[in-house]
Design goal:
The protein has ten helices and eleven strands. With 266 residues, it is an alpha/beta fold. The protein has two domains: 126 residues, MutS, DNA mismatch repair protein, domain I, CATH 3.40.1170; 98 residues, Nucleotidyltransferase, domain 5 (2-Layer Sandwich), CATH 3.30.420.
Length: 266
Amino acid sequence: MQNAAPLLPEIEAAPETAPDAQNRVTPMMEQFIEIKAANPDCLLFYRMGDFYELFFEDADKASRALGIVLTKRGKHQGLDIPMCGVPVERSEEYLHRLIAKGFRVAVCEQTEDPSEAKKRGAKSVVRRGVVRLVTPGTLTEDTLLDARRNNWLMAVSRTKSSEEEASYGLAWLDISTGEFRVAESDETRLSAEIARIEPGEILLSDTLYDDPELKSYWRSLANVAPPLSGAWQLSSTSQHRTHSALSRGLSCRPRPRPQLISNARN
């Protein structure tokens, strides 16, 4: 992949004590904030030359999870910008460690040659975009998967027949193999069923995630993907992840029709 020249001189160009420098947003940081806002539930690997850089809260989380040095680069609105980075050539290793700890990562690459950006002006920023979403339940890369076990992406839904009785529908998919299974459970067996299946990631509606009786249970699971606020709404990242999971999984080679499974695996 083509390397890019350093793209951040404008952050440090203005004196830090100038009032306008403390409040202004540089073109590079404006781009980062825009891409991060579109992927709020992921750590953002922001490509800069030979490194993926992380900034702000992402940098704090990644530095602690990976045991790498947290540094800073420039200022934003008068405050130091926390930063850490991982080399591109070793990124798969770091991704594996982050995913194992339950993080979700959006990989943001340069989508144009730096020379094209220079044509738009000295302070123009190389265009970037998220080209890959890496989450515990959507892995397909052999380097990130455990060959000894399935990597299930699970969705859980609930239907209430009365105020006291409810049934839960479970559907789980291994995108790397195309295996797709479903089951039904009541609330008393729900946690046992999930523990038996051992999904890598669980998707929930916000209504189910915030249910008073299940709230503490969901939050005790590291593999639950918290939905954003707003009833029955998913972030753009979650929508893409869910659509990609279903389309890629169900488009694999034909398999036997899924059957209701309550106990043993096939």
